[in-house]
Amino acid sequence: MSSEGSRGKRAVARAPRSAAVAPARVRTIKEIAAIANVSVATVSRALQRPEVVSDATRQRIQEVVKRLGYTPNALARNLRTARTRLIVALLPDIANPFFSEVIRGIEQVAHESGYSVLLGETRSSLVREQAYADMVAARQADGIITMSHRVPKIPMPGRLPVVNACEYVKDKQISSVYVDNVAAAGAAVDYLVTLGHREIAFIAGPPSSPICVDREKGYRLALQRAQLAVDPALMVSGDFSIEAGERAVELLLSQGQSFSAVFCSNDEMAIGAMRALGSRGLRVPEDVSVVGFDDIRFARYTSPALTTVAQPKNALGREAMAMLIELLADPEVPPRKRVLSADLVVRGSTAPPSPRKRK
Amino acid sequence: MSSEGSRGKRAVARAPRSAAVAPARVRTIKEIAAIANVSVATVSRALQRPEVVSDATRQRIQEVVKRLGYTPNALARNLRTARTRLIVALLPDIANPFFSEVIRGIEQVAHESGYSVLLGETRSSLVREQAYADMVAARQADGIITMSHRVPKIPMPGRLPVVNACEYVKDKQISSVYVDNVAAAGAAVDYLVTLGHREIAFIAGPPSSPICVDREKGYRLALQRAQLAVDPALMVSGDFSIEAGERAVELLLSQGQSFSAVFCSNDEMAIGAMRALGSRGLRVPEDVSVVGFDDIRFARYTSPALTTVAQPKNALGREAMAMLIELLADPEVPPRKRVLSADLVVRGSTAPPSPRKRK
DNA sequence: GCGTTTCATGTAATCCATTACATTGCGTTG
DNA sequence: CAACGCAATGTAATGGATTACATGAAACGC
Helix, strand, coil proportions of chain A in percent (round to 5)? Predict the structure, then answer.
């Protein structure tokens, strides 16, 4: 029927805001004011601070607003008020279940204070981090919580509205919340030592991340405490992926390294490690004990269930958001580094080393 | 030292945009124009369509922009242009690894077309879905991709800039991309039948979701094809969580139901099911075969590795975003429901039923 | 050399809400 | 009853960009 018309319309480059199909248009505060027979100021007040307008007027306005389905244009509002009540949480990898609990914590506190949270996945790419951070410079968000060890550059005077969670940065000006990775990793290795292990391999995370360096430090210190030599041949590093864990163990085994336990810098690598051990016919924990880090949701469902260092994920998120809110309310609050503690959770993947010598 | 001053300051309610600490202020296009000795229009043009300003002017402006670290106020820009080049992807649960691959697909296509993606976790709460959807009504985002089976209400005339991914809604006006759940579930059950299973239990997902109904339908149809009775006692439903899978199997076992295979509506419930079977001393797949749905990243790392229906996660995301972009460019494109196919991936959790009778 | 393009730039309207300040009307109070 | 305070509402400036239209200068054709 109207095929010609519609094809013709589609053929030309369309104006961005073609109202061709729209039967009703989007409402503005002016229209509401006109229909409710008040000024725009009164409409604005009726919506922002209802207590200052008279009951009759307020009700009339609210009725019109509801009837016409009016939603104030947040861009205009935010432009005027210079705040958005929106924060962006940057996470390296949504596929990593570790972060989901942290996000929950962030959102809980955010909502309590009237903030909304949007998530940006950065895949550890500087470019993406920067793109999301630019939203702050461009006034589309009030602040950023970053879960990487880099602070994006925001061309802004004064204190950056950025808080660091899970990781930390050296920059003294940036508040961070994270766990005592040295102590936590140390406790994990201490436990293996207590079980009787003497040859403990270590799968490190990306060395660019300070927390990974700390976990390695914890491992080294624990070995030293036990008067065990730190053997570089037993240390491999990976990128936090399951596959990296597999590859690391395969490497150790193919090199003929002897070890009765592996401490992994995160749970996903531990899962990979268990898998690789299994496919080489080694049993966990009888032949090799495995310890992870993070305590992701799947950790208790591996078989055997994974012994791991449980980070207080929810608390990390809550604390980070609380700090950011504080910072947004008062740019002068001094930055601080808040260190939480992480506890070892013993499950089935660890046991005393078997008495017979492993190959 | 300045403790009194700072306490005093903190005590009073601060003006929202206290510039107290800021040594330099945030720049506006006016300042750039003044410094570069051109009009604001020229600055805007130099940044938006550099080819229309002369080389000399452009360079001068860019130099000033860079030197002062100027970022245009996106609120002002978006207010004027009525577009944000931002879309929000609503996902029920970031902890579910299924969605992460879908998000990747969305982001890939989005970036190709100059869109940014922000993620909103809804936890299946209508209120949260609505809150994020309101961002579109409030002009803070151009469109929404929702991964739930509900379409948020956006008080907007005409076609809603919403696309549905992974799930689908009955509403004909909303484009959806999803897999043929009936066929895929059927294929999974067919496979179990082929292996020789006759007593196949089913763990359903939330019945509110159409795709879960479809998966159940696929299960029923496959049983009928195999001329097997559909036994309601072998059907339990769960909420997609690992724990739900555990509980479902425990329920079946405690009821003394006899079954040699379980088909689960998602992988997490399958992981829970395997766990529950294991803790009752039943081996997978020797005693009971387990099949999941989704093929999340962890599915190949369970032991035994999980046989599951692989959804084309990346394609779901890409297609959804492509549809949304198309819709944003032209509100008149007809809505469509795009159905992709999902393939069974056979791994170690399935085997022919053991000849001896199980308890 | 004069009219006509073309190119580069400027002027000012516009997007839509918030809010300081102004105004109005009414009830108190001395 | 003049003066005042207060409550309710209106007027208009404002936030920071984009962009239609206007202008001026240079280039061009004949």
Answer: 45, 15, 40
pTM value?
A: 0.88
Write down how long chain A is.
359
DSSP codes joined into one string, A61-110: HHHHHHHHT----HHHHHHHHS---EEEEEES-TT-HHHHHHHHHHHHHH
User: Locate tokens 């089976």: which residue?
Assistant: B149
Query: Structure tokens of A74?
Result: 């947040």
What is the least distance, in Å, from the CA of A359 to any CA of chain B? 24
Contact state of B95 with A95 under an 8 Å Cβ cutoff: no
Peptide bond into B155 cis (omega under 30): no
Interface check for A133 against chain B (CB to CB < 8 A): the answer is no
B66 touches chain A (CB under 8 A): no
pLDDT reading at B13 higher than 70: no
Average pLDDT over residues A99-118: 94
Mutation target vs A (from B303, B327, B333, B349; most A CBs, 10 A cutoff) = B303
CB A148 within 8 A of CB A178: no
Residue-wise pLDDT for A208-237, tens only, equals 999 999 999 999 999 999 999 999 999 999
State what percent of residues in chain A have pLDDT above 90: 86
DSSP at A192: H
Tokens of A318: 């809550």
User: What is the residue-wise DSSP string for B45-65?
Assistant: HHHH-GGGS-HHHHHHHHHHH
Searching chain A, which residue's CA lies closest to the CA of residue B70? A155
pLDDT of residue B8 exceeding 60, the answer is: no
End-to-end CA distance of chain B: 78
Residues with Cβ within 8 Å of residue A256, at least 6 apart in sequence: none
* Rounded Cα gap, residues B105 and B120, in angstroms: 16
B219 touches chain A (CB under 8 A): no
Nearest CA distance, A275 vs chain B (angstrom) = 7
Whether residue A125 lies within 8 A of chain B, CB to CB, comes out as no
Angle between helices B29-36 and B55-68 (to 10 degrees): 120
**What are the DSSP E strand ranges found in chain A?**
86-91, 116-121, 143-146, 162-165, 175-179, 200-204, 235-237, 261-264, 289-294, 307-310, 337-340, 343-345
**Nearest C-alpha in A relative to B328:** A16
At B182-200, the pLDDT tens digits run 999 999 999 999 999 999 9
3-state secondary structure of A121: strand
- Residue B264 CA to chain centroid, in angstroms? 20
Q: Could you tell me if residue B294 is left (phi over 0), alpha (psi between -120 and 50 degrees) or otherwise beta?
A: left
